[in-house]
């Protein structure tokens, strides 16, 4: 059973238009905006209710921030310890510098297991490296088992949300996708399928069950990797992950190196803040933890691929590395007014929303137009920082990245703003120069306030190069007399 429509499609993220262009088109889609407003509003309200139940929520956020910072500050040591403990437990640890290496490792492992298909747990890391496409090129089918990921895959689509990848689809659209596509790749949807959520979920379960029972290889990511025990942790809400993590003979987990935590006890805090921030639940429905293989129980061949793919580059930036604290809860997406209106596809990345706007340009660089535009995909309202369970200051990071985008793409030529600031600094460094400029401005003010110009107090249009300023705001007419001149005239220049 092969040739699924999605796995052979290469995502052309880097060929996409800028965020601003894509968002302008998305704003014209009334159905998309209605779907997004309903979904994000529902999740936002659920989160607010369960967070309000805790009187120590801010303390938990501070603790989660400290835990992730401690992990990142000694990341090299924790990774070495994780490898040693995981290997001692019977797992095989692989290191991948980039997406190409990671994909080659996974493809070789699947081939070595003699498999032509894999079942997958929802994983942002495998989407980031486009593993499904790499497997398809090798003649291997990758079946997404998360309900929302299944909808995206069957619909020949791509995710638009970290937590709810099919958030841009409504129930009627999901029903049509199931009826049209399920029969092409497995058990068809019932002919009398309705758009009732219970019926849609039932159709997905029946369709996936044969794949769960047949597959001999599973691919997962991990929410956390525990250094002092060599354990991996996956949290999910549907039970599909538990099926993938326990039934197949071979389990391959692709894990970003930033997912490592120093110790087992760190989970106490993170498993409190993650479900409340992501799904608005007090406790995660399914939390799977494994440490290597166990005799006669679950996968007997356990492989872990530790993925860099630009993460050490992010770690090297003192102002940008905080983005690696992200635990993929998606709370920032659900409160962002820009995301709610523009949707996830406008970001041209598997990481949409505010966190994607700071993480993607750091992982991929700013060589392409879409990546250069992402730091500007925000109003800087600060709502994302307020809800982030690990306190990533996304607004400040966006400003930092905007500066970097400008600096990296100027080609060494100073901007007009830089020239103006340097000129202003030179003038203000000497009171005589400042006095001379004030007298010139006063003379200009007299002319502008003359009867010929109607005595205007503000200017609505200035000549180039100041035209850009006056197009968006009124510019005050310079006073005819500066404070320095007034003081000299009225006080005789005395300083008493």
TrEMBL record:
The entry's keywords: 4Fe-4S, Electron transport, Iron, Iron-sulfur, Metal-binding, Repeat, Transport
InterPro entries: 4Fe4S_Fe-S-bd, 4Fe4S_Fe_S_CS, FTHF_cligase-like_sf, Helical_ferredxn, LUD_dom, LutB/LldF, NagB/RpiA_transferase-like
Domain (4Fe-4S ferredoxin-type): residue spans on this chain: 316-338
Keyword Transport assigned: yes
Pfam families: Fer4_8, LUD_dom
Organism superkingdom: Bacteria
Listed GO MF terms: 4 iron, 4 sulfur cluster binding; metal ion binding
GO-annotated biological processes: lactate metabolic process
UniProt KW Repeat keyword: yes
SUPFAM superfamilies, sorted: 4Fe-4S ferredoxins, NagB/RpiA/CoA transferase-like
The protein, known as: (4Fe-4S) cluster-containing protein
């Amino acid at each position: 059973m092969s040739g699924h429509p999605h796995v052979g499609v290469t995502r052309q993220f880097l060929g996409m238009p800028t965020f601003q262009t894509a968002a302008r088109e998305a704003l014209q889609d009334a159905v998309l905006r209605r779907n997004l407003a309903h979904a994000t509003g529902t999740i936002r309200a659920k989160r607010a209710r369960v967070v309000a139940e805790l009187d120590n929520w801010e303390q938990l956020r501070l603790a989660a921030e400290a835990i992730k910072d401690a992990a990142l500050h000694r990341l090299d040591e924790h990774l070495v310890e994780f490898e040693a403990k995981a290997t001692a437990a019977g797992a095989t640890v692989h290191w991948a510098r980039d997406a190409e290496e990671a994909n080659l490792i996974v493809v070789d492992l699947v081939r070595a297991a003699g498999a032509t298909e894999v079942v997958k747990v929802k994983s942002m890391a495998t989407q980031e490296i486009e593993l499904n496409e790499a497997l398809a090129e090798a003649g291997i089918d990758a079946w997404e088992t998360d309900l929302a990921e299944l909808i995206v895959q069957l619909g020949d689509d791509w995710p638009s949300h970290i937590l709810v990848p099919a958030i841009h689809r409504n129930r009627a659209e999901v029903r049509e996708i199931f009826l049209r596509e399920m029969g092409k790749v497995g058990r068809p949807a019932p002919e009398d399928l309705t758009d009732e959520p219970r019926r849609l979920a039932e159709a997905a379960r029946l369709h996936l069950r044969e794949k769960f029972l047949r597959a001999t290889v599973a691919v997962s990511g991990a929410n956390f990797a525990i250094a002092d025990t060599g354990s991996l942790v996956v949290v999910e809400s549907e039970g599909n992950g538990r099926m993938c993590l326990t039934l197949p003979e071979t389990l391959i987990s692709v894990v970003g190196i930033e997912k490592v935590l120093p110790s087992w006890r760190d989970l106490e805090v993170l498993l409190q803040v993650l479900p409340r921030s992501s799904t608005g639940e007090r406790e995660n429905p399914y939390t799977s933890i494994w440490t290597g293989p166990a005799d006669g129980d679950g996968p007997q061949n356990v492989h872990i691929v530790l993925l860099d793919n630009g993460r050490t580059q992010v770690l090297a930036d003192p102002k940008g590395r905080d983005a690696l604290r992200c635990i993929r809860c998606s709370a920032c997406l659900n409160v962002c007014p820009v995301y709610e209106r523009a949707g996830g596809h406008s970001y041209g990345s598997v990481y949409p929303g505010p966190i994607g706007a700071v993480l993607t340009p750091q992982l991929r660089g700013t060589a392409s137009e879409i990546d250069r535009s992402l730091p500007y995909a925000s109003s800087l309202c600060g709502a994302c920082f307020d809800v982030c369970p690990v306190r990533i200051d996304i607004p400040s990071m966006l400003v930092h990245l905007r500066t970097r985008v400008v600096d990296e793409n100027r080609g060494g030529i100073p901007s007009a703003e830089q020239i103006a600031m340097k000129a202003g600094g030179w003038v203000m460094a000497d009171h005589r120069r400042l006095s001379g400029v004030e007298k010139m401005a006063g003379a200009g003010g007299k002319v502008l306030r003359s009867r010929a110009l109607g005595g205007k107090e503000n200017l609505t249009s200035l000549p180039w190069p100041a035209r850009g300023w006056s197009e968006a705001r009124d510019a005050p007419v310079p006073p005819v007399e500066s404070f320095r001149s007034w003081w000299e005239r009225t006080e005789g220049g005395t300083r008493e």
